[in-house]
Amino acid sequence: MTSANGGREFRLPGLILTGPGCLGQTGAATAELGVNHALVVTATPLRESGAVDEATAVLNAAGVATTIFDEINAEPTTDDVEAAVATYEAAGANGVVGLGGGSALDTAKAVAVRAVHPGPLSLYQGQDQIPPGRAPLVAIPTTAGTGSEVTRFTILTDRARDVKMLIGSATVIPDVAVADPNLTLTAPPPVTASAGIDALTHAIESYISRRAQPLSSSLALSAISMIGANLRQAWANGQDLAARRAMMDGALVAGMSFTNASVALVHGMARPLGAYFGVPHGLSNAVLLPHVMAYTAPEATGQYAEIARALGEEVAGLSTAAAAGRAIAAVQSLCSDVEVPGLTALGIGRDQLMPVVAAMANDALDSGSPANNPRVPEASEIVALYEQAL
Ligand SMILES: [Fe+2]
Q1: What is the pLDDT of residues 254-295, one digit of tens each?
Q2: Which of the listed residues 159, 183, 207 is the one where a domain comes to its end?
Q3: Which of 33, 162, 255, 362 is 20 to 30 A from residue 240's alpha carbon, by CA?
Q4: Is the Cα dihedral 211, 214, 215, 216 positive or negative?
Q5: How many Å lie between the centroid of ligand 1 and the Cα of residue 115?
Q6: What's the CA-to-centroid distance between 318 and ligand 1, angstroms?
Q7: Helix (H) or strand (E) holding 85
């Protein structure tokens, strides 16, 4: 939020745990919130990988009883949330622990809200619509991507209207974020790539956003450096703990930035790719990022030159415009090296895209995110950008 005199607020979780093994501190941190019975909101594959067992063991060891809820969709819905709330109430839980990728964390945030506020969740769609107060909330990401563990956003599909709702509110910022890179060691290369480019997109978009502020901008450049220097290695060798840690920290820092600065055109255009074609969020951003950067460059030359520096490009002696070009080339080469596909490779050709692309462009504009971009597009320009991504 911005005050009338231009003052800004900057919000984050009260406790952020980082580094290999920090999951072990989760039990004490959860108990400190007054939780003695947590609903663990997660996805079935994590139950199978052992991550859920590990998390519940540390919670139980700290005297926090656990009930597991793992019936969530990859694109979570209001029905998933209501089913989880019913489980929460039946178990007599008094806190929520989200464990997983963005889907699990977004669901957990909404469960913590619905545990104390009436439904339907559509009451809270938009910005700052949730009254203060929710159940204690701990967020444990298992991918280095969304930054949801520190953000004020949750995105859910409203089953009643079949639309994706963005809910943005300080109320959903978790109390505790637990960013343990050990949980990402088994992520396969395509997940590492799309999650990593999603995080890079958060950092780049929050840096160039019209709603950036000095605190968010310094974090954004730091995140760009960490991600730019480590994504290739984390993708090539998933067991490289140093690279995994840098990616986990980079995604978290990017989240700290964009939750206080907002995202821009890439995210505005990415959401319709998910809604119309089911392309996962990280991949949607990844296929669009280089094209949108090239489009935006004329209005963000100075910022892109700084991004090039943060990506480790040698820009001494170059003009600002040439340095900005290096940022775009560096991001293109990073996406290529970690094998980000084009839309055609995802089964979306011209025949599939063109019948719906005008509606997608309108949805992108309606989201409000494109208005944060330094170069604000017309609908026809968004259509052209989707075509470039084929
Ligand atoms: Fe994102």
Answers
A1: 999 999 999 999 999 998 998 899 898 889 998 999 999 999
A2: 183
A3: 255
A4: positive
A5: 26
A6: 31
A7: helix 78-91
- Ligand 1 centre from 287 Cα, in Å? 12
Q: Ligand 1 centroid vs 331 CA: distance in angstroms?
A: 16
Residue 6 belongs to some domain of the structure: no
pLDDT class for 1, splitting at 50, 70, 90?
A: low
Residue 236, pLDDT above cutoff 80: yes
CATH number, domain with residue 95? 3.40.50.1970
- Which amino acid, residue 311? L
Residue 45 has pLDDT above 90, yes or no: no
**Using 50, 70 and 90 to split pLDDT, how confident is the model at 2?**
low
Q: DSSP secondary structure string, 185-224? A: TT--HHHHHHHHHHHHHHHHHHHH-TT--HHHHHHHHHHH
Mean pLDDT taken over the chain: 95
199 CA → ligand 1 middle, Å: 7
Angle at 13 between CA 35 and CA 192, to 5 degrees: 100
Same structural domain for residues 213 and 65? no
**157 neighbors 75 (Cβ within 8 angstroms):** yes
Q: Which pLDDT does position 3 carry in this prediction?
A: 62
Give me ligand 1 centre to Cα 5, in Å: 30
Q: Structurally, how many domains does the chain consist of?
A: 2
Tell me, in angstroms, the distance from the centre of ligand 1 to residue 144's CA. Answer: 11
Quick check: is 1 in a domain?
no
CA of 282 to the centre of ligand 1 (A): 6
| Residue 6 clears pLDDT 80, i.e. is over it | no
Cα 70 from Cα 310, distance rounded (Å): 39
Q: Rounded mean pLDDT of 338-364?
A: 94
